[in-house]
Amino acid sequence: MIDMKLYITLPSDNIDFRCIEKVLIPIQNKTEIQGAIDSSDSNFMEALVITSQGKQVSDFRFCEARLLTQLIALVEDYYLSAEKAISDNVYGLSVITIGLRKTGENKLLLTATRDGNRIVQVELPEKELIDNLFSLAKEYFSYLIEYGISTSFHAKELSIVCEYETRYKDIYRKSLD
């Protein structure tokens, strides 16, 4: 079983990734997010903490501007790629490089490096990983809309995620069921 938790903060040149958890806010914390983030902001540092089978496989260092959007775009690119291996550092601030590669029967290897240091390397069940990413993205953008933060921008992001998810389910997920 995979569990994903997303945290956000405002981008800053002064972020120390060794203790970033001190400035991150869980996406479910409406009061703290509304107090810390201007309603016109649309660019956040997002940290994704992933737990698989009770073991934490990523930590707060898996953090980047618009990380979740990058992951969703990476999934879309992965399924369009014939090689079923893709590494991406085009989106966001290019501080983190994220990779996705098929490793076996219905398994994907998720990797992330920052400054040449591997911060994530985990093999996860393909269907569960992708389904969780789509679910988390929809939840995240829905929260931001509910909180009144850049509502039109995040409504568009939510629409894109739903479009990618529909395409994924219609074309690719059938082979995993």
Report on this structure.
The protein is α+β, with helices and mostly antiparallel strands and 177 residues long. Helices cover 36% and strands 30% of the residues. The strands form two sheets. Strands 1, 2, 3, 4 and 5 form a five-stranded antiparallel sheet that branches. Strands 6-7-8-9 form a four-stranded antiparallel sheet. The longest helix has 22 residues, at 151-172.
* Structural class by SSE content: alpha+beta
Which series of helices and strands comes N to C?
EEHEEEHEEEEHH
Give the oligomeric state of the chains in this entry, treating copies of one chain as homo and distinct chains as hetero: single chain
Mean pLDDT: 86
Number of strands: 9
**Count of DSSP H/I helices:** 4
* Largest sheet features: 5 strands, antiparallel
Tell me the span between the first and last alpha carbons. Answer: 16 Å
Fraction in helix? 25-40%
Question: What is the strand content?
Answer: 25-35%
Q: How many whole angstroms does the radius of gyration measure?
A: 16 Å
